[in-house]
Design a protein that fits this description.
Blueprint: H1 2-27, E1 38-49, E2 53-64, E3 77-85, E4 88-92, E5 96-98, E6 107-119, H2 122-135, E7 137-147, E8 156-168, E9 175-178, E10 185-187
Antiparallel strand pairs: 1-2, 1-9, 2-6, 3-4, 3-5, 3-7, 7-8, 8-9, 8-10
């Protein structure tokens, strides 16, 4: 008698559990995966640097993937970036318009920012100057945003990239480019 009840319970569980899983899978709303936007390049050009002042230019390119899921990124919109040193924002670009993104084609978006004679404060300027003149490399963090076309959103899709190491060209303290593996960027 007890074995019959156990068999009945096991049989019921085996019949109900798969149906419950199927029910959850089909009735749970699916979210589109977040587009994997990558850093394609970042260049830093020192125009003038002292322990207290910086004049420099950053140029950034990001790669929009060919498989834009759903309606995340608008096919036209704004692209804006902030460049950070030791988690301090040095400069934020003005919004750059982009037009004509195409589904099924990877594309590059570019933005640049210039800081001229900016007062960096004592320690930030000192560390940045040390990195440029002694280490011949510098690490910058990056935040950027794109226009988000999905309904019921803020209208902005924001990304944060891990610090990128930029190395100066041999014999130069003027121009640096990303060296090694490009940092990953995550949507937040």
């Amino acid at each position: 008698m007890m074995d019959a009840r156990i068999c009945c319970c096991v049989f019921s569980f085996l019949c109900i559990a798969p149906n419950f899983i199927i029910f959850l899978v089909f009735l749970t709303p699916m979210k589109d995966p977040v587009p994997k936007v990558e850093l394609a390049s970042m260049d830093f050009t020192v125009l003038s640097i002292t322990q207290t002042r910086l004049s420099a230019k950053w140029e950034l390119s990001i790669r929009i993937p060919e498989d834009l899921p759903g309606e995340y990124i608008c096919l036209q919109g704004d692209f804006q970036a902030s460049f950070l040193y030791k988690n301090v924002t040095l400069v934020t670009s003005s919004p750059q318009k982009y037009y004509g993104l195409n589904y099924r084609l990877p594309q590059i978006l570019k933005v640049s920012a210039v800081v001229s004679g900016e007062d960096m404060g004592g320690s930030i300027g000192k560390y940045l100057m040390e990195d440029v003149k002694e280490k011949k490399q510098v690490q910058f963090g990056l935040l950027f945003s794109l226009t988000d076309c999905r309904k019921k959103t803020s209208g902005v899709m924001s990304y944060k990239c891990h610090e990128a190491t930029l190395m100066f060209e041999p014999g130069s303290e003027i121009k640096a480019s990303v060296f090694g593996k490009h940092p990953s960027c995550i949507n937040f």
